[in-house]
Protein backbone atom coordinates (compact mmCIF):
# COMPACT_ATOMS: atom_id res chain seq x y z
CA UNK A 1 0.00 0.00 0.00
CA UNK A 2 1.16 3.53 -0.70
CA UNK A 3 1.53 6.47 1.57
CA UNK A 4 -0.75 8.62 -0.60
CA UNK A 5 -0.28 11.94 1.20
CA UNK A 6 0.41 14.80 -1.21
CA UNK A 7 2.84 16.41 1.22
CA UNK A 8 4.34 13.55 3.23
CA UNK A 9 6.36 14.40 6.29
CA UNK A 10 9.95 13.32 6.63
CA UNK A 11 9.55 10.22 8.80
CA UNK A 12 12.72 9.85 10.82
CA UNK A 13 13.31 6.38 12.14
CA UNK A 14 15.98 3.95 13.26
CA UNK A 15 18.74 4.07 15.85
CA UNK A 16 19.26 2.98 19.43
CA UNK A 17 17.14 4.29 22.28
CA UNK A 18 19.21 5.78 25.09
CA UNK A 19 17.07 4.48 27.98
CA UNK A 20 14.88 1.49 28.76
CA UNK A 21 11.51 2.22 27.15
CA UNK A 22 8.31 2.43 29.19
CA UNK A 23 4.89 1.35 27.91
CA UNK A 24 3.41 3.99 25.61
CA UNK A 25 -0.06 4.39 24.16
CA UNK A 26 0.26 5.34 20.48
CA UNK A 27 -2.86 6.95 19.06
CA UNK A 28 -3.46 6.95 15.30
CA UNK A 29 -3.76 9.93 13.02
CA UNK A 30 -6.27 9.85 10.20
CA UNK A 31 -4.95 9.74 6.63
CA UNK A 32 -7.14 9.57 3.48
CA UNK A 33 -6.36 6.50 1.39
CA UNK A 34 -6.41 7.68 -2.20
CA UNK A 35 -7.48 11.31 -1.76
CA UNK A 36 -9.60 13.60 0.43
CA UNK A 37 -12.89 11.80 -0.37
CA UNK A 38 -11.42 8.32 0.05
CA UNK A 39 -11.61 5.87 2.92
CA UNK A 40 -9.76 7.05 6.01
CA UNK A 41 -7.08 4.91 7.63
CA UNK A 42 -5.64 5.22 11.13
CA UNK A 43 -1.81 5.38 11.16
CA UNK A 44 -0.12 4.40 14.44
CA UNK A 45 3.40 3.95 13.06
CA UNK A 46 5.37 6.07 12.63
CA UNK A 47 4.13 7.98 15.66
CA UNK A 48 5.22 11.32 17.08
CA UNK A 49 7.56 9.88 19.69
CA UNK A 50 8.04 6.26 18.65
CA UNK A 51 8.51 5.49 15.00
CA UNK A 52 9.37 1.78 15.02
CA UNK A 53 8.75 -1.49 16.86
CA UNK A 54 11.62 -3.76 15.94
CA UNK A 55 11.84 -3.42 12.16
CA UNK A 56 8.10 -2.63 11.86
CA UNK A 57 8.09 0.97 10.64
CA UNK A 58 4.55 1.61 9.34
CA UNK A 59 1.10 0.50 10.51
CA UNK A 60 -2.25 1.48 8.99
CA UNK A 61 -5.59 0.16 10.29
CA UNK A 62 -8.72 0.64 8.18
CA UNK A 63 -12.40 -0.23 8.48
CA UNK A 64 -14.65 -1.93 9.00
CA UNK A 65 -15.96 0.15 6.09
CA UNK A 66 -19.19 -0.56 4.21
CA UNK A 67 -18.19 -0.26 0.55
CA UNK A 68 -21.44 -1.57 -0.90
CA UNK A 69 -21.89 0.01 -4.33
CA UNK A 70 -18.50 1.77 -4.05
CA UNK A 71 -15.10 1.21 -5.60
CA UNK A 72 -13.54 0.47 -2.22
CA UNK A 73 -9.75 0.48 -2.08
CA UNK A 74 -8.17 2.01 -5.18
CA UNK A 75 -4.42 2.60 -4.89
CA UNK A 76 -2.79 3.14 -8.32
CA UNK A 77 0.69 1.83 -9.19
CA UNK A 78 3.38 3.33 -6.97
CA UNK A 79 6.99 2.49 -6.06
CA UNK A 80 8.73 1.12 -2.98
CA UNK A 81 12.36 0.67 -1.94
CA UNK A 82 14.13 -0.69 1.12
CA UNK A 83 11.13 -2.35 2.80
CA UNK A 84 8.63 -5.22 2.87
CA UNK A 85 4.88 -4.62 2.65
CA UNK A 86 2.61 -6.88 4.73
CA UNK A 87 -1.06 -6.93 3.64
CA UNK A 88 -3.51 -8.46 6.14
CA UNK A 89 -7.30 -8.51 5.90
CA UNK A 90 -9.94 -9.09 8.55
CA UNK A 91 -12.84 -8.77 6.07
CA UNK A 92 -13.07 -8.28 2.33
CA UNK A 93 -10.70 -8.78 -0.59
CA UNK A 94 -7.83 -6.83 -2.13
CA UNK A 95 -6.31 -7.50 -5.55
CA UNK A 96 -2.53 -7.04 -5.77
CA UNK A 97 -0.64 -6.43 -9.02
CA UNK A 98 3.09 -5.75 -9.24
CA UNK A 99 5.83 -5.00 -11.74
CA UNK A 100 7.19 -8.56 -11.47
CA UNK A 101 3.98 -9.74 -13.16
CA UNK A 102 2.27 -11.11 -10.06
CA UNK A 103 -1.52 -10.82 -9.75
CA UNK A 104 -2.90 -12.11 -6.46
CA UNK A 105 -6.18 -11.79 -4.59
CA UNK A 106 -5.71 -11.65 -0.83
CA UNK A 107 -8.52 -12.61 1.55
CA UNK A 108 -8.81 -12.84 5.35
CA UNK A 109 -6.31 -15.23 6.91
CA UNK A 110 -3.93 -14.96 3.92
CA UNK A 111 -0.64 -13.08 3.84
CA UNK A 112 0.59 -11.00 0.92
CA UNK A 113 4.27 -10.17 1.51
CA UNK A 114 6.12 -8.02 -1.02
CA UNK A 115 9.84 -7.41 -0.61
CA UNK A 116 10.71 -4.19 -2.42
CA UNK A 117 14.48 -4.34 -1.97
CA UNK A 118 16.18 -2.20 -4.62
CA UNK A 119 12.85 -1.26 -6.16
CA UNK A 120 9.40 -2.48 -7.19
CA UNK A 121 6.00 -1.00 -8.02
CA UNK A 122 2.52 -2.35 -7.34
CA UNK A 123 -1.17 -1.47 -7.17
CA UNK A 124 -3.94 -2.52 -4.79
CA UNK A 125 -7.68 -2.43 -5.39
CA UNK A 126 -10.96 -3.91 -4.31
CA UNK A 127 -12.08 -6.32 -7.05
CA UNK A 128 -15.24 -5.50 -8.98
CA UNK A 129 -17.21 -8.24 -7.19
CA UNK A 130 -15.96 -7.31 -3.71
CA UNK A 131 -17.93 -8.06 -0.57
CA UNK A 132 -19.70 -5.36 1.44
CA UNK A 133 -17.13 -4.83 4.21
CA UNK A 134 -13.45 -3.92 3.92
CA UNK A 135 -11.38 -4.19 7.09
CA UNK A 136 -7.67 -4.70 7.41
CA UNK A 137 -4.14 -3.75 8.36
CA UNK A 138 -1.21 -2.65 6.22
CA UNK A 139 2.30 -2.92 7.65
CA UNK A 140 5.82 -2.16 6.47
CA UNK A 141 9.07 -3.75 7.63
CA UNK A 142 12.34 -1.86 7.14
CA UNK A 143 15.11 -3.89 5.53
CA UNK A 144 18.56 -3.78 7.15
CA UNK A 145 21.33 -1.97 5.30
CA UNK A 146 23.01 -5.09 3.90
CA UNK A 147 19.70 -6.37 2.47
CA UNK A 148 18.01 -3.19 1.29
CA UNK A 149 19.29 -3.75 -2.25
CA UNK A 150 17.99 -7.32 -2.48
CA UNK A 151 16.21 -8.29 -5.69
CA UNK A 152 12.45 -7.69 -5.27
CA UNK A 153 10.14 -10.66 -4.79
CA UNK A 154 6.57 -11.50 -3.81
CA UNK A 155 5.09 -14.19 -1.55
CA UNK A 156 1.52 -15.30 -0.91
CA UNK A 157 0.85 -17.58 2.06
CA UNK A 158 -2.65 -18.98 2.43
CA UNK A 159 -1.90 -21.60 5.09
CA UNK A 160 -0.25 -19.97 8.09
CA UNK A 161 0.34 -21.74 11.42
CA UNK A 162 -2.39 -21.36 14.06
CA UNK A 163 -2.18 -22.17 17.76
CA UNK A 164 -5.48 -22.59 19.61
CA UNK A 165 -6.35 -22.64 23.29
CA UNK A 166 -9.51 -22.27 25.43
CA UNK A 167 -8.77 -18.52 25.57
CA UNK A 168 -8.47 -17.95 21.83
CA UNK A 169 -6.08 -18.46 18.93
CA UNK A 170 -2.84 -17.10 17.51
CA UNK A 171 -2.03 -17.00 13.77
CA UNK A 172 1.67 -16.38 13.06
CA UNK A 173 2.20 -14.10 10.04
CA UNK A 174 5.96 -13.62 10.33
CA UNK A 175 8.67 -14.98 12.58
CA UNK A 176 8.07 -17.50 15.36
CA UNK A 177 5.72 -17.57 18.33
CA UNK A 178 4.53 -20.29 20.72
CA UNK A 179 6.65 -22.84 18.90
CA UNK A 180 5.14 -22.11 15.47
CA UNK A 181 7.05 -20.49 12.59
CA UNK A 182 5.67 -18.65 9.59
CA UNK A 183 6.99 -19.61 6.12
CA UNK A 184 7.29 -15.90 5.21
CA UNK A 185 10.82 -14.60 4.69
CA UNK A 186 12.07 -12.08 7.25
CA UNK A 187 15.37 -10.21 7.10
CA UNK A 188 15.61 -9.23 10.77
CA UNK A 189 14.57 -11.03 13.98
CA UNK A 190 10.87 -10.18 14.33
CA UNK A 191 7.39 -11.51 14.96
CA UNK A 192 3.93 -10.61 13.68
CA UNK A 193 0.74 -12.40 14.70
CA UNK A 194 -3.03 -11.97 14.72
CA UNK A 195 -4.60 -12.76 18.11
CA UNK A 196 -8.23 -13.78 18.53
CA UNK A 197 -9.51 -13.65 22.11
CA UNK A 198 -12.70 -15.42 23.18
CA UNK A 199 -15.38 -13.34 24.99
CA UNK A 200 -14.46 -12.71 28.61
CA UNK A 201 -11.08 -14.45 28.27
CA UNK A 202 -7.51 -13.30 28.81
CA UNK A 203 -4.86 -14.55 26.41
CA UNK A 204 -1.34 -14.75 27.83
CA UNK A 205 1.42 -14.80 25.19
CA UNK A 206 5.01 -15.67 26.18
CA UNK A 207 7.31 -13.41 24.15
CA UNK A 208 10.99 -13.15 23.31
CA UNK A 209 12.62 -11.10 26.07
CA UNK A 210 15.22 -9.56 23.74
CA UNK A 211 12.44 -8.19 21.51
CA UNK A 212 10.38 -5.06 21.96
CA UNK A 213 6.65 -5.54 21.37
CA UNK A 214 3.47 -3.62 20.67
CA UNK A 215 -0.19 -4.59 20.46
CA UNK A 216 -2.42 -2.98 17.82
CA UNK A 217 -6.00 -3.21 19.09
CA UNK A 218 -8.48 -4.38 16.43
CA UNK A 219 -11.23 -4.20 19.08
CA UNK A 220 -11.45 -2.68 22.56
CA UNK A 221 -8.99 -4.57 24.76
CA UNK A 222 -7.15 -4.61 28.07
CA UNK A 223 -3.43 -5.10 27.44
CA UNK A 224 -1.18 -5.75 30.43
CA UNK A 225 -3.88 -4.21 32.62
CA UNK A 226 -4.30 -1.08 30.50
CA UNK A 227 -7.37 -0.23 28.42
CA UNK A 228 -6.58 0.10 24.71
CA UNK A 229 -9.31 1.31 22.36
CA UNK A 230 -9.88 -0.01 18.84
CA UNK A 231 -7.25 1.39 16.47
CA UNK A 232 -4.79 2.36 19.23
CA UNK A 233 -1.42 0.68 19.70
CA UNK A 234 0.17 -0.04 23.07
CA UNK A 235 3.95 -0.24 22.99
CA UNK A 236 4.69 -2.64 25.84
CA UNK A 237 8.47 -2.34 25.72
CA UNK A 238 11.16 -4.96 25.98
CA UNK A 239 11.42 -8.01 28.24
CA UNK A 240 8.72 -8.87 30.72
CA UNK A 241 8.34 -12.47 29.63
CA UNK A 242 4.74 -12.29 28.41
CA UNK A 243 1.95 -10.03 27.16
CA UNK A 244 -1.64 -10.40 28.38
CA UNK A 245 -4.66 -9.37 26.31
CA UNK A 246 -8.17 -9.47 27.74
CA UNK A 247 -11.62 -8.56 26.43
CA UNK A 248 -15.26 -8.52 27.46
CA UNK A 249 -16.64 -9.42 24.05
CA UNK A 250 -14.88 -11.09 21.10
CA UNK A 251 -11.41 -9.57 20.78
CA UNK A 252 -8.79 -9.22 18.06
CA UNK A 253 -5.32 -7.74 18.00
CA UNK A 254 -2.05 -7.67 16.11
CA UNK A 255 1.11 -8.46 18.06
CA UNK A 256 4.19 -6.86 16.50
CA UNK A 257 7.70 -7.28 17.82
CA UNK A 258 11.34 -7.64 17.01
CA UNK A 259 14.89 -6.92 17.97
CA UNK A 260 15.30 -3.13 18.34
CA UNK A 261 16.30 -1.77 14.93
CA UNK A 262 19.67 -0.17 15.57
CA UNK A 263 20.20 1.49 12.21
CA UNK A 264 19.26 5.06 11.45
CA UNK A 265 17.00 5.33 8.43
CA UNK A 266 15.03 7.98 6.62
CA UNK A 267 11.53 7.12 5.41
CA UNK A 268 9.82 9.47 2.98
CA UNK A 269 6.70 8.75 0.91
CA UNK A 270 7.12 5.09 -0.13
CA UNK A 271 10.88 4.87 0.17
CA UNK A 272 13.09 3.68 3.01
CA UNK A 273 16.71 4.75 2.64
CA UNK A 274 19.72 5.94 4.57
CA UNK A 275 20.44 9.31 2.95
CA UNK A 276 18.65 12.17 1.24
CA UNK A 277 20.47 11.43 -2.01
CA UNK A 278 19.34 7.79 -1.99
CA UNK A 279 15.69 8.78 -1.61
CA UNK A 280 15.96 11.64 -4.10
CA UNK A 281 17.48 9.31 -6.70
CA UNK A 282 14.66 6.79 -6.23
CA UNK A 283 12.05 9.54 -6.58
CA UNK A 284 13.69 10.92 -9.73
CA UNK A 285 13.92 7.48 -11.34
CA UNK A 286 10.25 6.79 -10.58
CA UNK A 287 9.20 10.09 -12.11
CA UNK A 288 11.28 9.52 -15.24
CA UNK A 289 9.71 6.11 -15.72
CA UNK A 290 6.20 7.32 -14.94
CA UNK A 291 6.45 9.96 -17.64
CA UNK A 292 8.20 7.61 -20.12
CA UNK A 293 7.05 4.02 -19.50
CA UNK A 294 9.81 2.63 -21.72
CA UNK A 295 12.29 3.91 -19.14
CA UNK A 296 10.78 2.43 -15.97
CA UNK A 297 14.17 1.06 -14.89
CA UNK A 298 14.24 -0.75 -11.56
CA UNK A 299 10.56 -0.04 -10.77
CA UNK A 300 9.17 -1.77 -13.86
CA UNK A 301 5.57 -1.49 -15.03
CA UNK A 302 2.33 -2.65 -13.41
CA UNK A 303 -0.06 -4.01 -16.04
CA UNK A 304 -3.83 -4.23 -15.65
CA UNK A 305 -4.65 -1.28 -13.40
CA UNK A 306 -7.09 1.11 -15.08
CA UNK A 307 -5.68 4.45 -13.85
CA UNK A 308 -2.27 6.12 -14.29
CA UNK A 309 0.54 5.57 -11.82
CA UNK A 310 0.86 7.87 -8.83
CA UNK A 311 3.06 10.93 -9.20
CA UNK A 312 5.69 11.31 -6.51
CA UNK A 313 5.28 14.36 -4.24
CA UNK A 314 7.87 17.09 -4.33
CA UNK A 315 10.77 16.65 -1.95
CA UNK A 316 10.92 19.08 0.98
CA UNK A 317 13.09 22.17 0.69
CA UNK A 318 15.53 20.86 3.27
CA UNK A 319 17.66 17.73 3.08
CA UNK A 320 16.17 14.58 4.54
CA UNK A 321 18.17 13.30 7.48
CA UNK A 322 18.40 9.85 9.03
CA UNK A 323 17.69 10.04 12.76
CA UNK A 324 16.90 7.83 15.72
CA UNK A 325 13.85 5.57 15.93
CA UNK A 326 12.50 7.49 18.91
CA UNK A 327 12.13 11.24 19.20
CA UNK A 328 14.76 12.90 21.33
CA UNK A 329 13.22 13.93 24.62
CA UNK A 330 14.41 16.80 26.83
Automatic annotation (TrEMBL):
Cofactor(s) listed: Fe cation
Spans annotated as Disordered: 1-30
InterPro entries linked to this entry: Pirin, Pirin_C_dom, Pirin_N_dom, RmlC-like_jellyroll, RmlC_Cupin_sf
Q: Which GO terms describe its molecular function?
A: metal ion binding
Q: How is the co-factor bound, per the entry?
A: Binds 1 Fe cation per subunit.
Pfam families, from UniProt? Pirin, Pirin_C
**Binding-site list for Fe cation:** 78, 80, 122, 124
Ranges for domain Pirin N-terminal: 45-141
The keyword Metal-binding is annotated on this UniProt entry: yes
Extract the SUPFAM superfamilies matched here.
RmlC-like cupins
Q: Which CDD domains match?
A: cupin_pirin_C, cupin_pirin_N
Q: How is this protein named in the record?
A: Pirin family protein
